[in-house]
Amino acid sequence: MNALRRAWDHFEEAFIAFLLAAMTLVTFTYVILNNLYTVFYDLGDRFEGASDFFYAIADFVIGLAQSMTWSTALTKALFAWLLFFGISYGVRTAGHIGVDALVKLAPRHVQRVIGVLAVLCCLGYAGLMAVASFDWMKALLTVNIGAEDLGHLGIKQWHIALIVPLGFTLVFLRFLEVLVRILRNQQTGLGLADEAAEAMKLTEHEEPK
User: Fold this and answer.
1) Could you please report the per-residue DSSP string of the chain?
2) pTM of this prediction?
3) 64 and 76, same domain (yes or no)
4) Which domain covers residue 115, as residue numbers?
5) Tens of pLDDT along 48-90?
6) Do 138 and 62 have their domain in common?
7) Are residues 90 and 172 in the same domain?
């Protein structure tokens, strides 16, 4: 079970890295192509003897840039997957910012009760969103319409929407793990990031010795 959990954690990190890399690569390629053809046009104007050669390259590059009308839509789709997939990753790594200054003033057993109530609210929200978004995704699957600017690549709207129920299901499972840890007295709250504490640590490191 632990091996399976570690494998999923590694996959989660690798998939997020893949999404970030794909977004960066697509955007970088599109920006380069949209600025590179002007260089060859300028070279063609400067070197008249080889102008046809440079113009041909410039026309080829601008053709590639114009054919990448799908790049913006693909980047948005990848960002949507990164966003919803990253929610559960944030729960696992305590990446979400917590506002619990008042809660920490309470005794430990009170913090534990508040933590249980907070987790139950999060579970209810994640479960509700998972079920509702699954029904929405099923409707898109039924109509089977191609995604805007991505339909010619075989990408359907439901392919992009799939991440919403999947993401909230993963969030539900992560908060379920948090609930188990609280009930086992392994932690008292949601385990969110303490921005104030992080700021204090940074200040301490920056102070001259």
Assistant:
1) -HHHHHHHHHHHHHHHHHHHHHHHHHHHHHHHHHHHHHHHHHHHHH-GGGHHHHHHHHHHHHHHHHH-TTHHHHHHHHHHHHHHHHHHHHHHTT-SB---TTGGGS-HHHHHHHHHHHHHHHHHHHHHHHHHHHHHHHHHHHHTPBPTTTGGGT-BHHHHHTHHHHHHHHHHHHHHHHHHHHHTTS-SS---B-HHHHHHHHHHHHS--
2) 0.80
3) no
4) 72-209
5) 788 888 889 999 999 988 888 899 999 999 999 999 999 888 8
6) no
7) yes
